[in-house]
Amino acid sequence: MTNIRKVSDEILLAVDGISLSFGGVKALNNISFDVRKGEIRAIIGPNGAGKSSMLNCINGFYHPQEGQITFKGETRQQMQPHKAAEQGIARTFQNIALFKGMSTLDNIMTGRNLKMKTNFLWQALHLGPARREEMENREAAERVIDFLEIEQIRKTPVGKLPYGLQKRVELGRALAAEPDLLLLDEPMAGMNHEEKEDMCRYILDVNDQLGTTIVLIEHDMSVVMDISDRVVVLDYGSLLADGTPDVVRADQDVINAYLGVTHE
Amino acid sequence: MAGTVPSASLRDTFPKLLLENVRVRGDKPANREKDYGIWLAWSWAEIAGEIRALVCGLQTLGVERGDKVCICGDNRPHLYWALTAVQALGAVPVPVYQDSVAEEMQFIYAHAEAKFAIVENQEQVDKLLEIRPQIPALKSIIYNDSRGMMHYQQDFLYKYSDVQDSGRRFDAANPGFFVASVEQGAGSDVCAMLYTSGTTGRPKGVMLSFDNLLITANNGCLREGLSEDEETLAYLPMAWIGDNIFSHAQAYCAGYCVSCPESSDTVLQDLREIGPTYFFAPPRIYESLLTTVMIRIEDAAKIKQSMFHYFMAVAKRVGMDILDGKPVALVDRLLYGIGNILVYGPLKNVLGLSKMRVGYTAGEAIGPDIFAFYRSMGLNLKQLYASTEASVFITIQPDGEVNPESSGTPAIGVEVRIADDGEVMFKSPGVFQAYFKDDEATRETKTEDGWVHTGDAGYFDEQGHLRIIDRSKDVGKLRDGTLFAPKFLENKLKFFPHIKEAVTFGDGQDFVTAFINIDLESVGNWAERRNIAYSGYTDLAGQPAVYDLIQACVEQINNDLAADAKLAGSQIHRFLLLHKQLEADDGELTRTSKLRRAPIAERYADLITALYAGKTICPVEVRVTYEDGRTDTINANVEIRDAATTRAAAQAAE
């Protein structure tokens, strides 16, 4: 594939000296890295390395005790998840968090929640501005459905879908919010080879065609090395390495953490 | 020759018909497509504008009269417009199967010497880029969907809408060009080249003229009384002759609207939303529709289940007669009416067939049960006998005379005769011009005076309906001269859900015998319900109870065959259940699950000898190859049974 993406030098997100602990357990210890606008940034590390905690800090679900996060030039220490969403951060979850009884379309429409401005009464009566707004948002949802090629399951309750498709619907819901920064927590966990390939293609398409910056956590090394521009490696809450896939792959600390150290 | 010939030169090509349709019904919808979840419609006037822009745009790209232009993608209005646009320039569209792999495409592009390609999306562009070094004649590629195409820098790639834009500019500067180009076309020009699927050797390019397609399409419209109010769904490959007739030629002749599904995965939902009045599907589509219904009924509440089964039994008894206009008792008519309100109507609605007036099926034999299921619900499903070389129609079942076993009477304008060796031959206005660059094959297939060899063996029954029995080369004779058509018998066997595969023998023998593979799922299920324990396929196939089950199937077929004077002699006298399933890995089937008769006959020579030697048991040892390449031998004693045959004489006396 001829992929000539443009990653700018502009920093979209900067994480500076983040430390997070739960009681006596240090989940994150003085972590700093940045994400450039338009890039695919991977966070890797063994189990318990603090990857999901890092994402939770970025979207304001956890409040780190130390350090600060700068998003779109705005620095903050404490953040609420709904504020993060308003600022343009969307995410998917390691364990699928969809509304199982609702259709694919309805689930994706919930991702448009923040774009709906009319009040409850108008919406309940489906009148005037609420009607127009519903049409606009439905159109946006349909664009997401088209983008992810899930037309055939538009009306299917999500709980009846196979796992791989549920993951895709979850990505769709995040995309419906038209985010600037997309956080993906193990988007390919538990998928077979073909499903992984599909998901990779969608992630690349999102980045390429919608220009969305992506931070993803992934365990499959070949996937990470193939699709990401730069990789952050965490181990026991500390930053082990940071750089392009080639640099990270050659890093002795990373090799030790992943493959174990040989004692001679 | 019978039938109407659109002699007026106003209507003898697709582009001329397009302008005619704009004049007569410019505001009526011509195409629909679902996009972003909403059906969008284009009127005849609108598609004429789109096509005109494309014609002028292709002209600026250098498309000349006689050039071949490959068209490849799912059913999209834009690709149907491309067919007409290419024809308007006097060039020849060559639709290509969209799921062909790169090598198959390479053969067609190279053979057709295609200079241009109009394709749907990135997937098709990628395939062409891969084979481009081998097809130097290809000058430009035009793609419709620009998704993923952002970073393609090649200067020979053009976006469909950009081509149209430059066409509009050209049109503004040369306003007379389009109409002049359309007027240059004549009915005798070659207007499409379709490649036959090539089950026997390399694909051949069948050249068809405007007259071939349009006269045949028009005759088809007359036969079924098609009007501009029909609704159809275009979902079968554009490279297949049927789609060219049903979704393009007949739509232009009758002026009806063709809808394109959102994607190939949404066809069943789109079918329901469109509610076609004129519908075509190969048997497997009808089968899968039926399966979905049956599965949902199994899951339904008891009361619904019993209602369904009761009224389906009523339909089975009288439904076909009501549809054929035969006399039916008043009570049954009333019951059928209630059934229509409670069961058949809602069911047809769910299937999207409520409005279906005419439904066709062709391509392969359809199971009589499936056929009867649809017809008994009042759906006018009919079989036809078709071929690319005939521009589809050879024979069609007439309304009121539908019989699952026959293919009907010759279509309007078609003459059919049976050659001395039993081969079906036809002559019609739809007979193809020639195979492209293959005069030898043309001479072998088409006689000097225009008769075409079909390669199928068949005969006319007492009603004057054509019955196709088999490919001519497979048909043999028993020692007493009785006709023996193996595939015909095997299909009959395979219509039973318990039988997965069958091989019949009889050429040059005294009687017919059969190898049978049971369907493990279906028979396994049957065995479980009867508490018959089994360890695997070989064990199950050797059980006496299973033999009894299959014997009943064979005897039923013998009974059916006895009713037909020509086939009564080919009843199955002896059969056995093979101890292993026939496999492509063992070279017994082709990769598309067709029987490879010679290797099977060689491999199981002992069993065949035993069948004819009158033995009741035969030990076998067969090597099997597993998917990973390991081999093993299976030893088994295969039982051979005699099946009761019905005397044809007794039937004749009735």
Give an account of the 3D structure.
The complex is a heterodimer of chains A (264) and B (654). Chain A has 264 residues and is an alpha/beta fold. In chain A, 38% of the residues lie in helices and 24% in strands. Chain A has 10 helices and 10 strands. The model of chain A has no long low-confidence stretch (mean pLDDT 87). Chain B is α/β, with parallel strands linked by helices and 654 residues long. Chain B is built from 22 helices and 28 strands. In chain B, the strands form 7 sheets. In chain B, strands 4-3-5-6-7 form a 5-stranded parallel beta sheet, sandwiched between helices. A 5-stranded mixed beta sheet of chain B has the order 12-13-14-15-16. In chain B, a hairpin with a 5-residue loop joins strand 22 (476-477) and strand 23 (483-484). In chain B, helix 8 (210-224) packs across helix 9. Chain B is globular and about 85 Å long. The chains are: A alpha/beta (264), B alpha/beta (654). The interface between A and B is medium-sized, with 17 and 15 residues.
